[in-house]
Amino acid sequence: MELIENLQIRGMSRSFGTAAALYDFNLDIKGGTFVTLLGPSGCGKSTALNCLAGLLDLTAGEIILDGSPIHHIPAEKRGFGMVFQNYALFPHLTVIRNVAYGLESHAMPKTEQDRRIRAALDLVHLDIDEFGHRYPAQLSGGQQQRLAIARTIVLEPKLLLLDEPLSNLDAKLRNEMRIEIKRLHKQLGLTTIYVTHDQAEAMSLSDLVVVMRKGQIEQVGTPQDIYNCPKSLYVADFMGYSNHLPVTITGREGDAWAIQTENGLNLLAATTVENIADWTPGARAWACSRPDEVVAEPETSVNRMRGTVQLVEYVGKEFEVLVRVAGTENTQLLIHSEKAPALETSIDFGVRPDRLLLFPFDANSDSLLTTSRATARVAN
Q1: Count of CB atoms within 10 A of residue 69's CB?
Q2: Which SS3 state, helix, strand or coil, does residue 114 take?
Q3: Helix 171-188 vs helix 141-153: angle between axes, to the nearest 10 degrees?
Q4: In what order do the strands lie in the sheet with 266-269?
Q5: At the N or C end, where does the chain have fewer CB atoms within 10 A?
């Protein structure tokens, strides 16, 4: 299998008529890296993947593989492998014939073809003696997904592209196949680009996560960077920072920002946004947190708040509680508690200053949060 050293994407753009589906996409990928394009539907991630595969021509930009431009090369000559969301299996061909299909256009001895087919099916744990003569309709969803992957890796691709391959599977199978995909990536030394809207998939699989928004890259980083240090309100909201408090900056206290809520509560917060040193007292901002980082009955008095219990849900190991913040009419936050509090009772809760993140307030904030929250909540 021929492994790549470096893939460079420079200004990759794709328009459909006057609508720009992908704009000025720039990324450097080292060989052997697992990259995930993450974002809600319509953000351009599948368009980017199809451009890389050669299934869509570029409107502008270039793709450079190991120093040589390839964006002018047809898809079938790029040596890339792609696994589609709907698997695209041939229903009239057996498992063996599905895997063999791509090899039939390559001149190779029958013995080498048979070796590759058996090796590919072994890699995805489909026993050739048990499953080889079955048709796709006789396989489970997870087995069909394994077959789709085997059909791709049998060609020994330079680059493996996967377009939301687990979206049609149930939760248990998704977890199993996620492990299998990661194992194959490591075992074969592949360079992999994976498209998903599922944050859990992106966090568990990736070496590098690319968060996309409206056809452009919003943030690139390791899973830990994206999870802990979102650089924009959009990324934070998409990554599950679903608690949003409108606040006013009042000053600095050491490394922390001093803020005040609409009901006059003074808190401390941090920020992961670059170039915000010009924030001055009186500036408005959003203070955001993840529900699992806001805990009931905190041991410290720092950032201690109070509210009234509105709803309680058991989420495994602990309870997620919807709380109306004291002194407000409409401000509600989600917090986590080890015990189930009674409805309409008062509860104290808090969040560490370094996990209450500040983002600039602007006129588009409300619509941005409304648009992205639905997608983020599905994956949480």
Answers
A1: 12
A2: helix
A3: 20
A4: 266-269, 256-261, 243-253, 284-289, 357-360
A5: N
Burial class (CB in 10 A: 0-12, 13-18, 19+), 186: exposed
Instruction: Give the three-state DSSP class for 275.
Output: coil
- Would you list the DSSP string of 194-217? EEES-HHHHHHH-SEEEEEETTEE
Span 102-124, pLDDT tens digits: 888 787 888 999 999 999 999 99
Contact criterion met (CB below 8 Å) for 168 and 140? no
Burial of 2 by CB count in 10 Å (0-12 exposed, 13-18 middle, 19+ buried)?
Answer: exposed
Bridge partners (DSSP) listed for residue 191: 159
**Residue 329 phi, psi (nearest 5):** -95, -35
- On the 0-12 / 13-18 / 19+ scale of CB atoms within 10 A, 359 is buried
Pairing of strands 284-289, 357-360: antiparallel
Helix, strand or coil for residue 133?
coil
Which residue, chain included where needed, has tokens 């170039």? Answer: 275
Q: What structural domains and CATH numbers belong to the chain? A: 6-231 (3.40.50.300), 234-368 (2.40.50.140)
Tokens representing 156?
A: 């020994």
CA distance 202 to 199: 5
Separation of alpha carbons 285 and 357, rounded Å:
10
Q: Are 64 and 176 in contact (CB under 8 A)?
A: no
343: left (phi over 0), alpha (psi -120 to 50) or beta: beta
Going from the C-alpha of 328 to that of each of 98, 258, 308, 323, 331, the distances in angstroms are 61, 20, 10, 11, 6
Report the chain (380 residues): mean pLDDT per 10 consecutive residues: 90 96 97 96 95 96 96 93 87 94 84 92 92 94 90 92 88 87 91 95 96 97 96 94 95 93 94 82 94 93 94 95 91 95 96 96 61 42
The tokens describing 248, both together, are 């006013």
Q: Report the amino acid identity of residue 256.
A: A
Single-letter code of the amino acid located at 11: G
The pLDDT value given to residue 377: 40
